[in-house]
Amino acid sequence: MSSLEQIQNFKGKYPKQLWYLFFSEMWERFSYYGMRGMLAFFMVTQLGLNETEAGLQYGASQAFVYAFTFIGGLLADKVLGKRKSLFWGGILMIIGSIILAVDPKTYFFLGIAFNIVGTGFFKPNISSIVGQLYKEGDNRADAGFSLFYAGVNLGAFFGGLLCINIGKREMFSSLVPVGLEWNVAFGLASVVMCISLLTFTRTQHSLGPIGLSPLDHLPKRNKLIQEIITYAASLLILPIIIIMVSKTEYTDLFMYIVGPASIIYVIYEMKNFTAKENKKLIAALLFMVFSIFFWAFFEQSGGSLSFFAANNLDNKLLGFENDPNGVNNSANSLFVIVFASLLGLFWLWLAKRKMEPNTIVKFGLGFLFVAIGFYIFYTCQFFSSPNGKTSLNLFTFGWFIITFGELCLSPIGMSVMTKLSPQKLQAVIMGMWFLASAYGQYFAGLLGANIAEASEHSTNFEKLIVYAEGYKQLAIYALIIGVIMILVSPLIKKLMGDVK
């Protein structure tokens, strides 16, 4: 077994273990984004919900997905270790997808509940493992996370494109029996999740001591009891999740509790660390707060933008026919695949010339790109036909711009969380990073539902105007937050100490 020092003293730009994690995460994200891209549309067309209800339930389901990453990270740090947590999460996600494949209408919320808990165990721990491949202060970490993020989006691209189009019978319709298209679409998510888990189990030996159980010092019986209790508790909570996701008023209560509780827990843990380490933790919390706003804007993709694409976009992209929902689900991911590693190498190029902007400024730039992208969505109304259909080309260009905002924030954010958190608290902090995404998802659902409600009973052209004006407001908010973040960057930089 390789030692941690041998792993971290790798030559070149990327450690070999990063490629194994890249492919495991790629297939997991295929499963996740494939399902995510179907949810809002499926709830409206198959479950009979209106767009407002679907927007709220979509936001609730995505909020719980990322909220449980804090719990999954905590249990990994305290009980299971990152590897067992990741494996257990993958098993639960496979079960959830199979349930949906069998009967997505009857067992919709049960399947979603399994996927919520499974993602909570899987997502924060694979990202934390990536961070442990690098020594503290290694300036190759941002480039590594950018490459890893390209894997995330490679899976998201194919999952977002294939699953929704199979469900809508836009692709492979001759191979899929009529009436089983949604079963096949959800089933595809389970198949690729199996590939993800097999990829990890076959390559985990290369990780050396990374991600092993924190309870190895205990007697085997005591360790096993704690692990069994953890597995059992994660199953017993499923009925509660079903109730909370299907009745969104409970989501509000949960979100009021879990965020403050996680901050109180981190403050409690601060007594175990030095003043310097605690300042870094405070900086990490500030990054999380800003990221909530970012994801509230960005995650309109699965909610209001999904309805906007279905109702108000034509089907011509660069002269070729394309399903607007498929483009909405996959264009961003395709742009990330193309530009993530290039931008990561660009940060390395700037670092060598001592010109690389610090992390806070990168975050601020991320908001500015989002502001421009949503303003482009707003301008779509000026290219509309009388029936309320507007340019898919312009819409896709908006996603192109927003992609650079995502690349300035999301992979950089994962990287800086591993740099700012003590190793004993790393999975918890990574879980809290994704918990911030949960709040973003939650607010995204509320924003999208408000936009949908304002356009209810409107003509298609009137809907276009309402949605466009809503995106203009989001552009203004993103612009203001981006400017504020760049202005306060010197203060946060002091808290970060030697972390760039």
As for the number of domains, it is: 1
Output the CATH topology: Growth Hormone, Chain: A
**What order do the SSEs take from the amino end to the carboxyl end, as H and E?**
HHHHHHHHHHHHEEHHHHHH
Count helical runs.
18
Strand residue content? under 5%
Tell me the radius of gyration. 22 Å
Please give the order of strands in the largest beta sheet. 1-2
- N- to C-terminal separation? 32 Å
The CATH architecture can be given as Up-down Bundle
Relevant CATH superfamily? MFS general substrate transporter like domains
Q: What percentage of residues falls in helices of 4 or more residues?
A: over 70%
Q: Write down how many β-strands occur, each being a DSSP E stretch of 2 or more residues.
A: 2
What labels would you give this structure?
500 residues, Growth Hormone, Chain: A, 2 strands, 1% strand
Characterization of the model:
With 500 residues, this protein is mainly α. The protein has a single domain (8-496), classed as MFS general substrate transporter like domains (Growth Hormone, Chain: A), CATH 1.20.1250. It contains 18 helices and 2 strands. The protein has helices at 4-8, 16-45, 51-80, 82-102, 108-132, 141-167, 181-203, 220-236, 238-246, 248-269, 275-298, 304-312, 324-352, 359-379, 392-420, 426-454, 460-487, 489-496; strands spanning 316-317, 320-321. It has a two-stranded antiparallel sheet. Strand 1 and strand 2 form a beta hairpin. Helix 11 crosses helix 18. The protein is globular, with a radius of gyration of 22 Å. The mean pLDDT is 87.
Q: In short, what is this structure?
A:
This protein has helices at 4-8, 16-45, 51-80, 82-102, 108-132, 141-167, 181-203, 220-236, 238-246, 248-269, 275-298, 304-312, 324-352, 359-379, 392-420, 426-454, 460-487, 489-496, and strands at residues 316-317, 320-321. It is mostly helical and 500 residues long. It has one domain: Growth Hormone, Chain: A.
